[in-house]
């Protein structure tokens, strides 16, 4: 096609206006044989149309390039693509979301039933629980949970359900994760000399890109609860691997109720979460666990033989049943309690019930007192034996269990720099105020139960009984002496007018 043909196609009026168009064979130049002004007007009109056509073509090409770039580059980068619903998926290019997605793919492919325990995300889920429960797979148009800024995402696993730990670890590394494994001795076997050297996994920390997943390994305990161990940084561990100080779990051992789980869809990902997220969140700040001192208990019984008479064994059985009944009753009321006095001493010194104490001792903060506590115990089959003091001053309750085993409940009052509980001498009516340094509560395991004890156990016991000393005598009178509260801890309190 010649230039003449192009010009005629662009502007057909050229033929109608008597323009003389010629073409030289050598150079193919076009000659206009008309007035110069007419020539300029014609070229101006031609140039405008050509420029307009070129601009239209360029704009169309640029628009097509933008669509191609968005579809084939940006969507591949964030792993979401274009949403099937109206609009685009917002935030799914975040490092946190992509790391969690890959971790869930890893665990699902290996049938590892992990569940989400991350406090920050569970709190967000709890605030939007109805929305989360009604979400369907792939329906999310915006990343609201897993894309929030944070250093870790915490998941948990019940170890007895993990069948292929070693292969899982290798596959994780093949998928690009860098993982650290933390192990320790199994505390459940500390009471059995021949098995105390067994190591168990406690924690995994796996990083991908700039985000880390913390997998907390829960182990079953005999009290039908879950336990996780302390994450200890040993000498060979790279302290810069992750910001360990920001971990939500592992600063100390922890104990949790066994949660019922449910599957939900969060940010387009299917995950398991506790069915009652709020209850799990409430457990976290109060989950610290301390073990009974099994090694010291064995040493104690090597020096002082245990009482295995029929009477002692019968008392231990009755005391355990009474404690289980008391724990069940107080749990229904939502009242915290801990092992106190002689029961606490038995746990600390010999990991068991002192057979000659003849009662079970529990402590309760007065702010946790419920007005229906007496009727609740009576309904459970424990009649009230004694009531000393008042709620506002030195309250103490005693209930009669079977086989002449008594349940004593001491209520503790908090002052600025100490705590105290009251005591009343039954014969004289004198009131005593027993002083204790301030303490916090930890979980422990005692007679196959998950119960609380003062975290500052030795200070608590010594405030009650004086400094614990090793004694060489084997007589029962020595044991009885240790169970007598030290009188220097008591202040005589006058009766209120």
Automatic annotation (TrEMBL):
Q: Where is it localised?
A: Membrane
Its GO biological process annotations read: glycoprotein metabolic process
Q: Could you list the residue ranges that cross the membrane?
A: 50-70
Pfam families under this entry?
FKTN_N (PF19737), LicD (PF04991)
How does this chain sit within the bilayer? Single-pass membrane protein
Query: Boundaries of each LicD/FKTN/FKRP nucleotidyltransferase domain copy?
Result: 331-371
Q: Where is the Ribitol-5-phosphate transferase FKTN N-terminal domain?
A: 43-320
UniProt entry tagged with the keyword Chaperone? no
GO cellular-component terms in the record?
Golgi membrane
Keyword match Transmembrane? yes
Keywords, comma-separated and alphabetical = Membrane, Transmembrane, Transmembrane helix
Question: Can you tell me which family this protein belongs to?
Answer: Belongs to the LicD transferase family.
Mind telling me what this protein is named? Ribitol-5-phosphate transferase
Could you tell me which species this protein originates from? Delphinapterus leucas
Classification from the root reads:
Eukaryota, Metazoa, Chordata, Craniata, Vertebrata
- In the UniProt record, what gene is named as encoding this protein? FKTN
């Amino acid at each position: 096609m010649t230039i003449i043909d192009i010009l005629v196609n662009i502007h057909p009026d050229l033929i109608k206006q008597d323009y003389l168009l010629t073409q030289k064979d050598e150079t193919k130049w076009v000659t206009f044989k008309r007035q110069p002004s007419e020539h300029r007007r014609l070229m101006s009109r031609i140039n405008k149309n050509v420029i307009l056509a070129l601009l239209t073509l360029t704009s169309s090409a640029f628009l097509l390039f933008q669509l191609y770039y968005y579809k084939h580059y940006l969507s591949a980068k964030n792993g979401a693509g274009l949403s099937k619903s109206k609009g685009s998926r917002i935030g799914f290019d975040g490092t946190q979301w992509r790391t969690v997605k890959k971790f869930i793919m890893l665990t699902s492919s290996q049938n590892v039933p992990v569940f989400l325990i991350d406090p920050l995300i569970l709190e967000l889920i709890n605030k939007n629980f109805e929305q989360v429960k009604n979400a369907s797979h792939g329906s999310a148009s915006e990343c609201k949970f897993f894309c929030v800024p944070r250093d870790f995402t915490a998941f948990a696993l019940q170890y007895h359900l993990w069948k292929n730990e070693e292969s899982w670890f290798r596959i994780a590394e093949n998928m690009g994760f860098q993982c650290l494994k933390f192990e320790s001795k199994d505390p459940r076997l500390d009471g059995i000399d021949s098995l105390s050297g067994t190591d168990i996994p406690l924690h995994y920390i796996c990083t991908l890109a700039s985000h880390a997943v913390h997998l907390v390994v829960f182990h079953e305990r005999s009290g039908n609860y879950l336990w996780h161990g302390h994450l200890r940084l040993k000498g060979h561990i790279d302290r810069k691997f992750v910001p360990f100080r920001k971990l939500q779990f592992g600063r100390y051992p922890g104990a949790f109720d066994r949660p019922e789980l449910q599957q939900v869809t969060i940010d387009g990902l299917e995950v398991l979460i506790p069915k009652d997220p709020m209850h799990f969140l409430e457990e976290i700040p109060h989950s610290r666990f301390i073990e009974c001192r099994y090694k010291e208990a064995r040493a104690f019984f090597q020096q002082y033989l245990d009482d295995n008479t029929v009477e002692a064994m019968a008392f231990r059985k009755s005391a355990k049943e009474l404690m289980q009944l008391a724990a069940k009753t107080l749990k229904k009321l939502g009242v915290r309690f801990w092992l106190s006095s002689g029961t606490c001493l038995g746990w600390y010194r010999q990991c068991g019930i002192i057979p000659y104490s003849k009662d079970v001792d529990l402590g309760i903060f007065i702010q946790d007192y419920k007005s229906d506590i007496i009727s609740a115990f009576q309904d459970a089959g424990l009649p009230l034996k004694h009531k000393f003091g008042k709620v506002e001053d030195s309250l103490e309750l005693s209930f009669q269990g079977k086989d002449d085993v008594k349940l004593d409940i001491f209520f503790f009052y908090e002052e600025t720099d100490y705590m105290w509980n009251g005591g009343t001498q039954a014969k004289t009516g004198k009131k005593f105020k027993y002083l204790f340094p301030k303490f916090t509560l930890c979980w422990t395991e005692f007679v196959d139960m998950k119960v609380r004890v003062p975290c500052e156990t030795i200070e608590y016991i010594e405030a009650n009984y004086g400094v614990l000393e090793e004694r060489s005598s084997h007589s029962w009178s020595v044991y009885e002496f240790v169970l007598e509260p030290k009188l220097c801890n008591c202040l005589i309190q006058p009766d209120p007018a």
